[in-house]
Specification:
Blueprint: E1 2-9, H1 16-24, E2 42-48, E3 51-57, H2 67-80, E4 85-91, H3 98-106, E5 114-120, H4 127-138, E6 145-148, H5 157-166, H6 186-199, H7 206-209, E7 211-219, E8 225-234, H8 237-244, H9 249-266, E9 269-278, H10 286-291
Parallel strand pairs: 1-3, 1-4, 4-5, 5-6, 8-9
Antiparallel strand pairs: 2-3, 7-8
Bound molecules: guanosine-5'-triphosphate (GTP).
Guanosine-5'-triphosphate (GTP) binds next to α1.
Region (G5): 149-151
InterPro entries: G_ERA_dom, GTP-bd, GTPase_Era-like, KH_dom-like_a/b, KH_dom_type_2, KH_sf_prok-type, P-loop_NTPase, Small_GTP-bd
Region (G4): 120-123
Length: 294
Amino acid sequence: MRSGFVSFVGRPNVGKSTLTNALVGEKIAITSAKPQTTRRAIRGIVNAPAGQLVIVDTPGMHRPRTLLGERLNALVESTLGDVDVVGFCVPADERIGPGDRFINQQLDSFPRAKKVAIVTKIDDASKQAVGEQLLAISQLRDWDAVVPVSAVDRIQLDVLVEELIGLLPESEQALYPDDAVTDESEEERIAELIREAALEGVRDELPHSIAVTIDDMQRRDDRDLLEIYANLFVERDSQKGIIIGPGGSRLSAVGRRARGEIEQLVGSQVYLDIRVKVAKDWQRDPKQLGRLGF
Ligand SMILES: Nc1nc2c(ncn2[C@@H]2O[C@H](COP(=O)(O)OP(=O)(O)OP(=O)(O)O)[C@@H](O)[C@H]2O)c(=O)[nH]1
């Protein structure tokens, strides 16, 4: 069999996390319409007859404006130094631009990795547009494979898995047990689901200012209930007000949305308590970044 690591790269919002979840078959990475949602290198595991593919979902590459941005770019670079295959993602419905060319050039720094071009979101573009995008991407470099996919409509996902596994090194055994879907802990996944719920409907700089940590989790003995105590950090007092909303309405909606997702994940009822706190300018503060896990 073959087994190894692949990482999808591309500008923020091109659909890397959605593709990871679709391939893994379970939601392991949160997604949103806001760019730069992904902040961690999340591993998703795909088991196929030909082998095991470990997908390392990374933040989108961009020009950093904060210390957090710099750390995220560094995380992408160190991840790419280790993977067997890099999948360069470009959406079918947007022309290849300077941001894509910049990332493509960066790929030269990782000579060990095989390179695959992936045209994403083909459900959102005409056949002709997809064809043109395939041609445009082919001109960027000599790819080991070029594959158009739709994660949302599940088009060509098995073709992509087959191509990717074919490029992995041969190995005696799988890297993870064949029933594993991720190496993220339950606590980390829960914090991310709360962040995802909080991202819905917020605008401008606020999405970037949100961070979530879990203070405590306890399974009740007397009932089928998991109690979760979480902190939701923002950077300024004014943002705290927006997150909480009039009479706490926004925060309760966030709690409801997150609880639904968490109950699916843990398979029991959930009591969720979210405290909103201000960690002033945490994105630029090395100490606070450390405490929030970056
Ligand atoms: N129509 C369509 N939309 C998609 C597809 N894949 C992703 N999207 C949408 O594109 C947006 C961004 O998706 P993500 O998966 O969060 O993108 P990402 O590249 O991981 O983004 P970052 O975390 O910002 O790097 C979301 O609104 C998705 O619903 C697809 O196959 N088709």
